[in-house]
Design a protein that fits this description.
alpha+beta; about 55% helix; kinase; Beta-Lactamase; nucleotide-binding; phosphorelay sensor kinase activity; EC 2.7.13.3; Heat Shock Protein 90; binds adenosine-5'-diphosphate; five-stranded antiparallel beta sheet
């Protein structure tokens, strides 16, 4: 069942039950009060009969009782012990069939005879003219009241219908009003999945309710998905472009080997070397691409001593390369929060670049302030032109492609370093002057000792 039908059904049913309950309660209350009034009135009349009988012993009882006979009713008197009917006064014979007997208590009852309106009967014991105790019973038909109640019933029925019709129409409008944004939402989502576009919902002139919030969040999600999708597309096309060059080199060397390699050992060696180095390059490229993808999700948080980690990483470098790296760190215990392997990767990338793109000593310095921990890597190499400074953090961007190929660069190092730094709540800054050298600075929020 559609949500719209459910809302309509629920509101209509709820209103119907409410109206029926209220009307029934008012109807029953009115009926009870009316009966009580009738009983009270008839009791008063009975007392009046008793008083008049006592005050006028000379008037024949039957004549006196006739004077008090209700328009639609009956007066009966029953003898004690035998319950014999002493007298009965009525204008309508139908009342005679109402069952009756002597009652020594003052009471009242409402009697229902089939096909006839209800009758209220008041019973009161009195002293009769011969000095015996008798039961005076005054009956009155509730026909007029029942007629009124019937009219009231029809009034309530018509009133209920008159109330319910606008309520049903209101329910239809309410459900439409509530569901319109949801319908647009579903329509937009279907459109997005079927046609693979990035459609958003128009939010102009909308009141800022929960549905508005839902649609706004949806639009933000679409924007986010679109950005990620486009980034991925660029990444895939960049990556395939980067892989194309080594693959075509490998292919052409393999063809050269097939044609002339068997007879010419020089060509054979050159081809094998080139294939080997291109394979290395592809391996590095793939590894780095995987690293880049992985770094976007991984964010395990250990406590890392940046001073210790930097010292350790640099000593590994110095063992592997025949280059001097000057290390300055006045303080120990520079704690930050993050993933040790990823942080080491950042240091590795920056120091590796400094060594690759300069010939002199490289200086690494680790410092701390109240808010942040800082690691700077300075080289006295060729420097980076101002116009290139923002671009070098983009994936696969290399200033001098040919030179970078010689140094084994993939153009992914700084992109990886930047993404890891940002994942750790830090930032990567560059100060460089062409011909003088470069300083890369990474800043991380410091972990307070307590
Ligand atoms: P690559 O693998 O090519 O080094 P990176 O992303 O690490 O990729 O660097 C991107 C480019 O930035 C490099 O190709 C290089 O041109 C330039 N670059 C990076 N570090 C330095 C540096 N210390 N000095 C001069 N140029 C640099």
């Amino acid at each position: 069942m559609k949500l719209q039908t459910k809302i309509q059904l629920f509101t209509s049913l709820f209103m119907l039950i409410l109206v029926v309950l209220i009307n029934t309660a008012v109807y029953s209350l009115f009926y009870k009060i009316s009966i009580d009034n009738e009983v009270g009135e008839l009791k008063g009349q009975t007392n009046q009969i008793v008083e008049t009988l006592a005050e006028n012993p000379d008037i024949p009882y039957d004549d006196l009782l006739r004077a008090f006979l209700p328009e639609e009713g009956m007066i009966r008197v029953y003898e004690a012990d035998t319950s014999k009917l002493i007298t009965i006064i009525t204008k309508d014979a139908k009342y005679r069939s109402i069952p009756g007997e002597f009652s020594d208590a003052e009471s009242h009852e409402v009697v229902k005879q089939s096909g006839e309106p209800r009758t209220v009967v008041i019973k009161k014991p009195i002293i009769w003219d011969d000095g015996t105790v008798v039961s005076l019973q005054l009956s009155k038909s509730l026909g007029a009241l029942e007629e009124t109640m019937r009219t009231l019933f029809y009034v309530f029925l018509v009133a209920s219908i008159v109330i319910i019709i606008p309520m049903i129409i209101g329910g239809i409008f309410l459900s439409r009003f509530l569901l319109q944004p949801i319908k647009t939402f579903i329509h937009t989502m279907k459109d997005n999945t079927q046609e693979a576009n990035w459609k958003k919902i128009h939010l102009q002139n909308r009141s800022k309710d929960e549905l508005y919030e839902m649609e706004k969040t949806f639009n933000e999600m679409i924007e986010h998905l679109k950005e990620n999708y486009e980034k991925q597309e660029v990444f895939v096309s960049d990556a395939s472009h980067e892989l194309k060059t080594p693959i075509s080199i490998v292919k052409s060397y393999a063809q050269l080997l097939a044609r002339r390699g068997k007879d010419n050992p020089e060509i054979f060696n050159e081809a094998v070397q080139a294939i080997d180095s291109e394979a290395d390059r592809m391996q590095k490229l793939v590894e780095q691409m995987l690293l880049l993808a992985k770094n976007q999700q991984d964010s395990s948080h250990e406590i890392v001593d940046l001073a210790h980690l930097s010292r350790h990483t640099i000593s590994t470098f110095q063992g592997a390369y025949d280059r001097n790296i000057v290390f300055h760190c006045k303080e120990e215990n520079i704690f930050i929060q993050g993933n040790e392997d990823q942080l080491q990767q950042v240091i590795y990338i920056l120091v590796d670049n400094a060594l690759k793109y300069s010939k002199q000593d490289v200086t690494v310095e680790v410092t701390k302030s109240a808010q942040k921990a800082q690691l700077s890597v300075t080289d006295l190499g060729q420097g980076i032109p101002k116009a290139e400074q923002a671009k070098i953090f983009e994936r696969f961007y290399r200033i001098d492609k040919a030179r970078s190929r010689d140094t084994g660069g993939t153009g992914l190092g700084l992109a990886i370093a930047k993404s890891i730094t940002e994942l750790h709540g830090g930032r990567l800054i560059l100060h460089s002057k062409e011909g003088e050298g470069s300083t890369f600075i990474v800043e991380f929020p410091i972990l307070k000792e307590d």
